[in-house]
Design goal:
The structure holds 2 protein chains of 2 kinds. Chain A is built from 2 helices and 4 strands. By secondary structure, chain B is an alpha+beta fold. Chain B is elongated. Classes of the chains: A alpha+beta, B alpha+beta.
Chain lengths: ~70, ~625
């Protein structure tokens, strides 16, 4: 399953790093962070609840940029 | 401006004013230090916080870290050397923040500009509820709902007109500036603007599946497909920052230690200062921000011109197009066929057309349509049975009890019939009734007005080879190629032959030259996929073509191909300019900095100045209207 989320991120490099971090989260099959459109596309692995996975993704992103936001 | 940006602007202003005042107000030494340090904290607290945060989370080498170390180091040096010059420490961060502020403002602004360019999707739909017009979220509108589109509004969802007549402005979708008139029963695509009358439309798709949503999604996703130069930069940044930090450390330690060992004055201050300028110069921001911004602007500008490019990587490939392969029908020619002659027939014209039109009734090929038009009467579907289409040959069917074979000479050969030669220029469609040759129809197509210019423009852009592939007869194809000035033409090809031909052309050219295939999207999907770049034109509404192609031209003007290439060249040019400019200035300053020719102020220019110039240059990619 693929879902798109709005994100708030201030720098392009952080967006790249968030993408790398998000991909490492369990339950994420693939993730793309688009700095230009401020969108995050996440493909979830089978049998995972997007909401729960996104909690973890959000935590991972906060580690990259402490004041980033994801709408989910 | 966002709240964050406003706070930043305020901090910049306060800290700048304070810095200026401190130049003129005489203060005792200790107060001076405190005052400068307060000013420093005002402008840099978030950098210090983020740098600390980075260290805690195991990511040491980011730009916040670089700036924190550089500015704190400058402070420490000023105290230790008792120079009392704290301006550099505060100034470095101040200018860095101004640069960052400018960058976030510029990016936000161009983000807005570009999304406005692409703004073809309305965010509401009107429906009638208890005799009142209500605006609802188009996501909630189910298929088959009747929606009302008033003059001046955009159609939110694809559908069929139930009542009303109006003209539609489809320029944002197709680039076609002549309004399209619609009345009851006509299909309308979302994103077109209703100009004159009120329309009631029954939706045929969901909002998310409608044309406007699809296009927008396609363009938005495009910048996620990274180009090689973008990947290069993000990889580069990953190696570059740690490398610079290590070099700075070496620069601060190694020379003094060597001096000390050789019995000279170590001059620690000088080398630490040089190491700090090194850190300031080294921020990779100019590259990290301007490259994706250039691509995004290029993609946005192109989509505004009716050229949808599905990824930054395709923009890059497109700029290297050296071989362009065209499909003929619908691409270089209008694909509007007319029956221009009925020859060699053993039965009356009308009767021949009757059988031909009925046998072709299920086909959507332009030739079939033209035969039906030439017949001019209603098709009686009950009379036709056993329709069988052989791709690249023709159709066999049973019409009114007679077996009809209709198609090209290959089909006739297959059923063992000889065909007479025909001198007329055009596509010749032979017809056999009950296995007896009964005559042929000559059908010709019209070349698009802009095709010739399009080919000439492509040559000017450095395209070395223009090839036309067509299933059409040799004489027709050769003639068209001659008129248009194409370099190579291959005719009488089956769809599978086209793939083979494209593969052969790909193997013939050198690796760095790219092959681009242009088709109208009908029957072209395999070739579109196989080519380095597949361009589908006039593909609005053909989902298969949009899916298979890498570039979608919303109208069917072949001139758009050269425009797309020019846009890609401009965009890639800007990307390379930025890479070269930023790297050249940085490396020059790094080398000069190592030898002590660069002070903190110049270092700040190397960082912030370069970034601002690169961002401004990147925004230029958006302006492609007059290319």
């Amino acid at each position: 399953m693929k879902k798109t989320y709005k994100i708030e991120v201030d720098c392009a490099n952080c967006a790249n790093l968030m993408e790398v971090e998000a991909k490492k989260v369990e339950g994420v099959k693939d993730a793309v962070v688009n700095f230009m459109t401020l969108k995050m596309k996440v493909e979830f692995a089978e049998g995972y609840e997007p909401k729960e996975v996104m909690e973890e993704v959000f935590k991972a992103c906060r580690k990259v940029e402490p004041d980033c936001e994801i709408e989910f | 401006m966002k709240k964050k940006q406003k706070i930043m602007l305020l901090r910049i202003a306060v800290s700048a004013v304070l810095l200026i005042l401190l130049q003129f107000i005489p203060l005792p030494e200790s107060f001076r230090l405190i005052a400068f340090f307060i000013d420093y904290l005002i402008i840099s607290y978030d950098i210090l916080e983020d740098a600390f945060h980075g260290i805690v989370n195991g990511r040491v080498f980011d730009e916040n870290f670089l700036m924190a170390i550089a500015s704190l180091g400058a402070f420490a040096l000023a105290i230790l050397s008792k120079s009392g010059d704290f301006n550099e420490a505060v100034g470095v961060v101040l200018f860095y923040q101004i640069g960052e502020f400018f960058q976030s403002y510029a990016v936000g602004k161009s983000r807005k500009n570009i999304s406005e360019l692409m703004d073809i999707r309305p965010d509401y739909a009107n429906i009638m509820e208890n005799g009142k017009l209500v605006q609802v979220d188009p996501d909630d509108v189910e298929i088959g709902t009747e929606i009302i589109i008033q003059p001046g509004e955009k159609a939110p969802i694809d559908g069929v007109v139930v009542s009303g007549t109006s003209s539609l402005d489809t320029v944002a979708l197709t680039g076609e500036s002549v309004p399209r008139t619609v009345r009851e029963g006509d299909e309308i695509i979302s994103g077109s603007i209703n100009m004159t009358g009120v329309l009631t439309v029954r939706t045929t798709k969901e909002f998310g599946e409608s044309t406007a949503s699809k296009i927008l999604e396609l363009v938005e996703d495009a910048s996620s497909r990274k180009a090689k130069s973008e990947e290069f930069i993000s990889k580069f940044a990953r190696v570059y920052t740690p490398a610079v930090c290590v070099s700075a450390l070496l620069l601060a330690l190694l020379p003094p230690v060597i001096m000390l060992a050789t019995g000279n004055d170590p001059s620690w201050m000088t080398w630490v200062y040089r190491a700090l300028t090194f850190l300031v110069i080294s921020c990779p921001c100019a590259l990290v921000i301007s490259i994706p911004l250039s691509f995004f602007a290029g993609l946005g500008g192109a989509s505004n011109q009716g050229i949808l490019i599905k990824g930054s990587n395709y923009l890059e490939t497109l700029s290297k197009a050296k071989v362009i392969v065209f499909d003929k029908t619908g691409t270089l020619t209008k694909g509007v066929f007319e029956v221009t002659g009925v020859h060699g027939n053993t039965v009356p014209d009308d009767e021949l057309l009757f059988y031909a039109a009925h046998a072709e009734m299920a086909s959507s090929h332009p030739i079939a349509k033209s035969i039906q038009n030439a017949y001019g009467k209603d098709i009686d579907r009950s009379k036709v049975e056993n329709i069988e289409e052989t791709s690249g040959h023709g159709i066999t069917a049973t019409v009114d009890g007679k077996s009809v074979a209709i198609g090209n000479s290959k089909l006739m050969k297959k059923i063992g019939l000889a065909v007479p030669a025909c001198d007329d220029l055009g596509t010749v469609i032979h017809i056999a009734l009950d296995n007896v040759y009964s005559g042929h129809l000559v059908i010709s197509d019209v070349i698009k007005e802009t095709s010739k210019d399009a080919i000439a423009n492509l040559r000017k852009l450095g395209v070395e080879k223009t090839v036309m592939l067509t299933g059409d007869a040799k004489n027709v194809a050769d003639r068209v190629a001659e008129i248009l000035g194409l370099s190579v033409v291959h005719s009488e090809l089956l769809p599978s032959d086209k793939v083979n031909e494209v593969e052969r052309l790909i193997s013939e050219k050198s690796e760095k030259d790219k092959l681009c295939f242009v088709g109208d999207g009908i029957n072209d999907a395999p070739v579109l996929t196989r080519a380095d770049i597949g361009i589908a034109m006039g593909a609005m509404g053909s989902d298969a073509a949009i899916e298979a192609a890498d570039v979608v031209l919303m109208d069917d003007d072949p001139l758009k191909i050269s425009k797309a290439i020019r846009i890609s060249k401009k965009c890639i040019g800007i990307v390379y300019q930025n890479i070269a400019f930023a790297l050249a200035v940085k490396f020059l300053c790094l080398i000069l900095g190592a030898f002590g020719f660069v002070n903190m102020w110049l270092a700040i220019f190397a960082d912030v100045g370069v970034m601002i110039i690169a961002v401004l240059n990147a925004i230029r990619a958006l302006n492609v209207k007059n290319l």
